[in-house]
Amino acid sequence: MRAQFVLSEIGVGLRRNLTMTFAVVVSVALSLALFGGSLLMSDQVSTMKGYWYDKVNVSVFLCNKSDAESDPNCAKGAVTGDQKKQILADLEKMNSVVQNVTYESADEAYKHYKEQFGDSPLASSLTPDQMQESYRIKLKDPEKYQVIATAFDGRDGVQSVQDQKGILDNLFGLLNGMNWAARAVMALMLVVALMLIVNTVRVSAFSRRRETGIMRLVGASGFYIQAPFIMEAAVAGLIGGGVACAFLLVARYFIIDHGLALSEKLNLINFIGWDAVLTKLPLILATSLLMPALAAFFALRKYLKV
User: Fold this and answer.
1) b/e map 135-154, b = 16+ CB within 10 Å
2) Which residues pair with 98 in a beta bridge?
3) What is the CA angle 47-177-25, rounded to 5?
4) What's the pLDDT at 209?
5) 306 pLDDT above the threshold of 50
6) How do residues 244-255 score in pLDDT, each as one tens digit?
7) Is-contact 51 44, C-beta < 8 A?
8) Strand (E) positions, the chain?
């Protein structure tokens, strides 16, 4: 096969269907940018889970005098010294689940509350004796919260058992929902791109049916005839893939590092690095090349009649 002939036919085909080629490039670029974005969003959620789940605590809040008057869980009165010792001893026995236990007194809880919510109108009306003592428990596996809840929820002297992981689960549920929405839009754009590729190949094949007929008469093989059409689609798709890669790089640069600079403004979030972005680019480029080529190949089998 003469490479010069194939390359010239690719150029002719792209120029003849310039508008549809542009539409293919744009649709492939958008769908693959969403594809790459959804992969990066999954990586970001996994990174955040690993970062935050490693820091969450389970808190066993103890009854105080105020709770004894208002909370049914503390109907037997404020926690006693013996009850606190027993709770701590039971926690220390659970060393297969518990990594460490930290005690927070009512005065320490009041101090921490003032530091975090000192501007709140409620802060001025609170006193240390209204704050709850608690045991802050670091688990070896954050998923084992239910073991602590089962052991201590409802026990005398215990007001409640709270898991900070539950708050994070709501956030990660929202992020995962947004990620699936992006994937749905990506799938729609991918279908649109494939339809445009098929139509572009059909129009190109129809406009050159006389040339391909002559080639068949002089003994050209089916693949020799089909190669320019397949490569046209592959080139258009590859251009779209390149645009998608550029979009992801620019988005990472301006959203996280500069421009919006979320890495500086939201320093509590552990953002994904450049390595996560760069490892997705070969997959995007390979998809942008193979997807149009395969779509064109199957379209030609049905519509290229010479």
Assistant:
1) bebebeebeebebbbebbee
2) 139
3) 90
4) 67
5) no
6) 999 999 988 888
7) no
8) 58-62, 98-104, 134-139, 158-163
Query: Tokens standing for 43?
Result: 């990586």
Give the residue among 97, 81, 99 at the shortest CA–CA distance from 148: 97
96 vs 93: CA distance, rounded Å: 8
Per DSSP, the three-state class of 135 is: strand
Mean pLDDT of 115-127: 68
Spatial CB neighbours of 188, under 8 Å, sequence gap ≥ 6:
none
Query: How far out from the chain centre does Cα 186 lie?
Result: 14
Position 194: which residue type? L
Tokens of 25: 């490039």
Specify the amino acid at residue 80: T
Please name every residue paired with 160 in a beta bridge, in sequence order, or none if there are none.
61
pLDDT class of 6 with cuts at 50, 70, 90? low
Q: Please spell the DSSP secondary structure of 51-91, one letter per residue.
A: HHHTT--EEEEEP-HHHHHH-GGGTT-SPPHHHHHHHHHHH
Query: Residue 105 and residue 233: Cα distance in Å, rounded?
Result: 69
Region 243-267 average pLDDT = 84
- pLDDT digits 0-9 by tens, 17-35: 677 778 788 888 888 888 8
Cβ-proximal residues to 106 (8 Å cutoff; 6+ apart), any chain = 64, 128, 129, 131, 132, 133
Residue 144 has what pLDDT? Answer: 79
Residue 187 amino acid letter: A
Q: Is 22 exposed, middle or buried (0-12, 13-18, 19+ CB in 10 A)?
A: middle
